[in-house]
Amino acid sequence: MSRTPVAGTRLARHTVLAQVVTGAVVAGIAGLLSGPKAGLAAGIGAAAVVLGSVLMGQALLGGGVQSATGALGRLLLGMVGKWVLVAAVFVLAIGILKLPALPLVAGLAFAFAASAVAAVTAR
Fold first, then answer.
1. Cβ atoms within 10 Å of 106's Cβ, excluding its own
2. CB atoms within 10 A of CB 96
């Protein structure tokens, strides 16, 4: 019996948790340093990455065991969905909510960095 699906699910949970914690910390720091709008922007930037990661995890791990072609298709679908979601949140945050762009990008960058660290440190 292969433990790969269990390991994939565990890694997805670990990654999302790391992104949530990092996003909360970055949003708190941005809020303290630059005000509540910056904190909200950083939190929204990180939340976009978290929601995108959840979407990608569902796309990758939701179909069970598949052929290589099916797995690659799910990977591409998950990545495209993630980036479309992130872009939509950014358009909403900058264009409609008029939030500052720099904290938004900082939240995004730190959440992505947290996912990379989570992937490297996963056991």
1. 20
2. 8
